[in-house]
Amino acid sequence: MIEILVNAGPGETRAALVEDGVVQELFIEHAGRRRHVSNLYKGRVTRVLPGMQAAFVEIGLERTAFLHVDDIVGPPLEAAAPDPATDVRRLVSPGEELLVQVTKDPIGTKGARLSTFITLPARYLVYLPAGDTVAVSTKIEDEAERVRLKSLVAELRGEAAGGYILRTAAQGATAEALREDMIYLERLWRHVRARAAELPAGALVHEDLPLALRLLRDELSRGVGAVRVDSPEVYHAMREFAARFLPAVATRIELYDESRPIFALHGVEDEINRALERRVMLKSGGHLVIDQTEAMTTIDVNTGGYVGHRNLEETCFRTNLEAAEAIGRQLRLRNLGGIIIVDFIDMHTEAHRRQILTALERSLAGDRAQTRIVNFSPLGLLEMTRKRTRESLMHLLCEPCRACEGRGYVKTAATVCNEIFRELLRQGGDAGESVLVLAHQAVVDRLLEAEAATFEKLQRQIGRTVRLQVEALYGIDQFDVVAP
Asked: Got the DSSP string for 434-477?
């Protein structure tokens, strides 16, 4: 059974998609930091970069957004243009105002990714004002149903402008329900165009639904049996939204009013904490080590405490098989995207490699984000990509360590002691004068114990007395040498 648990607090709303008691996906939205994906803005082009075939667009966010030539609605580019660098300049120019939609949230130092191919979702349909075709979600596999839905929408649309995509939730939908969606979307598009004409550049034209309501619109088609929410205010808003747009599922929404927090009761808090750790333990005793970097995410598979029963090849295969099944869930849970490199334990049997690929594809089958497995490289590394539209769980909840400034490591006490010795020698000074060293407790302890002989020798060498003082607020690699 699939459940959605919603925890709404004063500062943030969190939701978990739980399948058979196991957390599969997490959604978090801060009150002052809502996501921008699907929002519509009136943007102004600030720079056109022919060398990148892109433009920078000001939409009122902290960083200028990025618009690639492939995401701009316009006349088709000439196949044999003499100067490809002029392509983007044929479509946009500095100072031009555009209606744009955010397709990817700002991540790290990068601004939002934009598109002028506007999409407006409803219960069963997605409206494409710049489109002219009717398409059906690939998750609707029944060919007869696909034909029925496509014919219905084509007939209802008539000669009207724009295209439609039938969502997975449209399976079994009646003509009347589809007509209601089309009327709603056409009204919404008229409203968007009217606001865009009135508002200045850099203004928000249309904002997507808040997290709780977005979950009802987007997730209930996945066979969700119950939605439990712990806030009466959010519960009533969800019931009202469901009664208006999704009457068939309104009864699935339940108010959780027990004393124990809903996330603690279902183990979601523990799952969040585990998802922030590098190491993921496997049932067999093996483990994964997951590291996020600016360029990519790496996943290392290790046998750990699993020693197997038959031979080395079988041990490696069993660990890799369990890891492949776990990786799909971890990617969804941590919302990892971009380039992903998996270092499976070396296997010499080609059949085993094929089974690992099949297991990984199976674990990724339920992922809504677009994934692509490239295969094993000549070095035995598995290469894949996963579309990234929002920040990962770690980037959302954490910040770089102030002690190591995001490097992931700090200098040892022994290294810092040697740096202090060099600084004392560099400063020199008049013999007989004292000097004060401020440092971390671990560094002071080492100077007085393991480095005591060297410390005494240094004081004799420089002819000065060195006093030590512990600074509780210093990181282990911070110190100051204070001379009178």
From this structure: EEEEEE-HHHHHHHHTTTHHHHHHHHHHHT-EEEEEE-TTS-TT
